[in-house]
Amino acid sequence: MQQRDQQSTKAPAWIAGVAAAAALWAALYLNLEAGADLLVGALGMSRATPFGEALHFFIYETPKVLLLLTAVVFVMGVVHTFISAERTRAMLSGKRAGVGNAMAATLGIVTPFCSCSAVPLFIGFLQAGVPLGVTFSFLISAPMVNEVALALLFGMFGWQVATLYLSMGLLVAVISGMVIGKLRLERFLEEWVQQLQNSAVSSEFSAEAVSWPERIREGLRHVREIVGKVWLFIVLGVGLGAGIHGYVPENFMAALMGNEAWWSVPAAVLIGVPMYSNAAGIIPVVQALLGKGAALGTVLAFMMSVIALSAPEMIILRKVLRPQLIAVFAGVVATGIMLVGFVFNAVF
Questions:
Q1: pLDDT per position as a tens digit, 296-311
Q2: Residue 213 CB neighbour total at 10 angstroms
Q3: How far, in Å, CA of 315 to CA of 274, rounded?
């Protein structure tokens, strides 16, 4: 009790610290382009050259993506103190199809998981008695329509693109989960997972009051763990994007991923599947491709396939699902992603 009182008295200091950090974050974010201009000029480079333009892109985009990622991960780390895995399982258990799919897809947005780290929760949902189709809605939504992708798309392309991406991603997750649920493919779960489905798991959740200093510490812990793990992927992704931005001819990208080629969307999905990245790492590549004349829908289809249908995820899922169910999952999701690509190309 005394410790709790001490933490509550420290809460204003913690909140003031977060406010100061937010002000510093905003000052840095708003001056990134000017800083990149100054640094490129100080190095004696010109943006009129391919290397100068690539260097400017790298200097500007690397801190931009890292700042956005840090802010979003911190906020979601705090949100995570209100939403536990046990409570999530309890909410989804016993829900009928449709309602459960929509809830699972929505929960997938606010949980900070990539495609690989979402698999353990996928197993936990099955153990809690959540229907297979509902669990797939979460598994699709968690990596594909996450808070990092939404924040970066909003910051780089505006609310219209972010909103349509959110809507279409949710639609893909919900419909894909419902289709998989209707097919009744539980027999293609590995035997040990089927046994988990029959085990009893308590759906009760006893929430302990958490102080704001503890919530803020949890947010900082998420930043250390998540940003600490993915920063190198971000730098590599921005570096690839910078190379595309500075050196790849605009006509080449327009021909490969432009609106005119009907096959560009399926090809982008096929190209994206063998790759693996998180949303933060692939967004700079997306921006560079768009800058070279690639169609928005085609590039988003590429991004979604990299995030939601990655080869590492399939390898991990093989421990849980038999090949037949993995093939159905990949086929349904790929179809949904291609639909998103075609819709974006038609609208924008």
A1: 888 888 888 877 776 6
A2: 19
A3: 11
